[in-house]
């Protein structure tokens, strides 16, 4: 069990290190890095390559941004297999609805509990 935590920490940390290096050494904005990571996860998930990362990295592979792209691609592929081409449009929404809902609800709760301010 402890190794699950260690592998998740290491694998998730590797994604964070890669993002930090890209921000420090390139002119890529955080938004472009975010989108790139989601797209990388979706592409690797579509070709079943990200499955190996999930086996090794556990939550460290499924929680960060590439994991979101992976979830989108897997859900869309599953839905296409079940209902056809329309599943390409509905699958990703169905597959990630729980995570998106949780992010919205918890973000709203944090905004209520803590006094958020915009950067000046």
UniProtKB/TrEMBL annotation:
Keyword rRNA-binding set for record: no
Membrane-spanning intervals of the chain: 6-23, 30-50, 95-114
Record keywords: Membrane, Transmembrane, Transmembrane helix
Pfam family, one: SpoVAC_SpoVAEB
NCBIfam families attached to this UniProt entry: spore_V_AE (TIGR02839)
Name of the protein this chain belongs to: Stage V sporulation protein AE
Protein source organism: Clostridium cellulovorans (strain ATCC 35296 / DSM 3052 / OCM 3 / 743B)
Taxonomy of the source species: Bacteria, Bacillati, Bacillota, Clostridia, Eubacteriales
